[in-house]
Each structure stands twice: as structure tokens, then as C-alpha cells.
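Why do we care about 3D structure at all? Because function follows from shape, and shape follows, mostly, from sequence. That is the central idea of this module. The next example makes it concrete: a single protein chain, its amino acid sequence, and then its structure expressed as C-alpha cells.
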Amino acid sequence: MDISWDDARLFLAIAETGSFSGAARRLRIGQPTVSRRLAALEYGVGAKLFRRGVEGAALTAAGERLLQPARKMAEWAGELQRAAESTDTSPKGVVRVTASPFVSFDFLAPFAAHVARKHPGLRLEVQSSVAYVDLGRGEADLALRLRAPAQEDLKLVYTLDVRNTVFVSKTLKEKLPRRPTLQQLPWVAWAPPYEALPPNPQLEALIPGFSPAFTADNFLVMLAAAEAGLGAMVLAHVPHRFLRPRDLVPLDMDLGPHAWSQLHLVCAKSALDIPRVRRVSELLVEELERAKRR
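And the structure:
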């Protein structure tokens, strides 16, 4: 049988999220539609592709055989889409940029207003996520990430060295010793299922028996808690010109080997052939260069 790209994308969404509900969210369709379309695909293939259980959907042997070809199909679908879009010579339309919740909130949202003023025909769609989307498949056009790309189909466009700084509210700072240690601070940190995200592992390495005073699974909730004086937060201090006023002040503290990190601008290698993506990439590099000089 001929397997369409829509069927392959449905199959991949179930396989990679591990559930029908996760696939429905990724594809932005209803769960009954996922079940109906998978049943039609399995009928055409002549084999069950998933075993459904309390823990989700697991690939059968037949499903395992389809996984790698489907992933290659996804990569080529992304290439095909970018090749088609590269024929449009004018920088207009939607550019999808993905980044962490902090970078999305602190930098990309005000940057989008700058892009709209400079190029009224361009619009940014910001995908705020702690997970890395697949740029090769075209799930986003550009990404700002803490890790440099290792995949051959991705291009590193720019890297900015970023200083990690401890911030507290003014009211909390007044209650602290003149030169507090890391151990003396109450901390705001990530809650499960995101406890492995920075800065949790770094703080655990620096503070024996690390136990945060407040945790949340949402960055804005964590920020609100820090501004309310519940604890300190480690934030990447990027001195860009769009910085919003914060009810937080920095502390002069030594984070040792974790004092610096890097922010990488990444895209699929062929993405910069698309005029609108190339222009937004250029504007991002301009702003990151400006921040580097401040």
C-alpha cells in the first residue's frame, strides 16, 4: 500500500509521544480522530502497529520496522517544505522560533514587537517549551538553545556567552546576611517532571543536601514566587535592550563552574534559504551581538 505523509506523521506522533492523547496534542486533532486514522492505517498495512496499555501505546514488531523509514520520511518532508518556501523572494509570513520559557518570556516576546515594527509583513510564532522540537522535520524554523547542535542536518548560526546570576527580591535581600553563601539562600527551583532542568542539577552539585524552598512546573510561577520573596532564582543574564523591569536584584555570588553558559541560535541547514527565516535570523544575530557589547 501507499503510505501518505499524513499517515506517517500520525504514526510518528503516537510512537514518539507514547500515547494517543499525546499524538492528538502534537497534531492538534481529537483523540477519536487519531484512533480512527490509525485503525485505517493498520488495516491497510495488514498488521497492528501499537499495543495499547495502561502506560500508553508501545510499538509492535511491525511498528518497529516502520519507525526509521517514517523518520526519514519526516526529514525529507521538512526539506521539501523548505525547498518550496525558498522560492518566495520576499521576507514575509510566519517564522516559528522555539526557546525555553525564560528566553521566550524575557527576550523573544519583546523581540517579536521589534520585528513587527521593522517588517510589518513578518510575524513571529514563539513556541515556549522545555523540550527540543525537531528542526529537521520543520517543527520550528529557528531555535535558541543551551546546547549546540550535534545533528548533521542542523546549522549553528550564532553563539552567545551568557552569565548566570542569582536574583532575589529586594525584601528578601534585606533579610539576608551581608555576604550570604549559596547554602544560606532559600531557593526557587523546578518541580517534577522538570527537576532535571537547569539550574536544579547545578545547584545540587554546589549545595550539599539541596532542598528548594519553593518548586513549580511553570517558569512564570517560579518568577512570581521569587518576586514575592519566597527564594532566589538563577537566571541567565542577557543584557539585551528589551529587558523588562523586574522586582528582583542580583546578588554577587560565585556559581563556580556554572557561572557561565551559552545560548545557541540553531536552524535546519536549508532553513536560511527561506527569505523570511533568513531575515529573522539576521535580526536575532543583530540583537545578540548588541547584547554581547553591552
